Amino acid sequence: MRFLVIGGAGYIGSHFVREAMRQGHACTVYDNLERGFRASLPADINFVKANLLDHAALEKTLTSDSFDAIYHFAAFALVGESVSKPELYYENNVEGVRVLLDTMVKLKSQAALIFSSSCAVFGTPHKLPISEEDPKNPLSPYGKSKMIDEWMIEDYCHAHGIRGMALRYFNACGADKDGGIGEAHDPETHLIPNVLRAALAKETVTIFGDDFDTKDGTCVRDYIHVTDLADAHIKAATYLCAQKGPFYDAIHLGTGDGFSNLDILKAAEKVLGHKIEYQIGPRRAGDPAGLYADNRKAKKVLGFVTCYSDLETILKTALNWHLEAPHGYRGK
User: Fold this and answer.
1) Which residues contact 42 (CB under 8 A, 6 or more apart)?
2) Tens digits of residue pLDDT in 265-279
3) I need a labelling partner for 303 at 20 to 30 A (CA). Which of 29, 167, 251, 252 fits?
4) Catalytic site residues?
5) For residues 223 and 284, which has the higher predicted lDDT (pLDDT)?
6) Phi, psi of 257, deg, nearest 5
7) Around 141, how many Cα atoms within 13 Å sit in the side-chain half-sphere?
8) Which residues are CB-contacts of 270 (< 8 A; sequence separation ≥ 6)?
9) In what order do the strands lie in the sheet with 290-291?
């Protein structure tokens, strides 16, 4: 198949591109490199450096090939930043998706649309594990932007005959097994890279809160390897391309297992072979005690199974990336 990958130079997008090409698919990447890295992609890939809000560049790209599927990985995703700068999130995350949808309608695109959503649309969940139909109550502008995007995509699908799907991620983590690419956010807010970076630098890791209603008082999350996420996106394209429009659905991508912050710390100690110093800090605003997926729908609809999402593989692949590129892509 032929894919247009918007935001393909970011963490999840670049891993998707690698896995898609590994499976024999052709990718065109569209990214403005504001938060992505050209070095995360093959040198010879068809690459368009442009903003999603650039109507002319987007139209030119969409008409340059007969794409089977369009992927949207281009969202800003820092919860704290979204609270202090909501305008960035409503412009990039919401307006960007609207421009994409309007352009698809204008050009009568026959491509399927696969959208990166998030478990942030649920806020504090009413029950665990979280199923697709559970009540939505996003707490941050980031989560709200994802919810608005899902509503827009569903409405456009029904009104204009588009085939679309929102894939709601839980905690994406790890790095490609063959090396060369990995997680390189600035600032880094995710637990696993922060644990590994601190351990390698012989620094103290901060665990935010130990008074949650969980087995050890620390937050519980569902960790899914980024390569498993990538494979699920390819399966989603295969599924959508077999449907007749209009069509829309939302599916959770997670393992269905929850691990606490201290579970992650202990697993990292096992992989590293030494103790990691840590301290307990205050809770972060809006952190739910637990978030993990009911993934039965992904298994049933997409035939999704995880191959790399055990903690040992997640941590070993992430560690290899941080050893290879301690300063991320800026050091490459």
Assistant:
1) 17, 21
2) 999 999 999 999 999
3) 29
4) 142
5) 223
6) -110, 140
7) 18
8) 312
9) 259-260, 220-221, 290-291
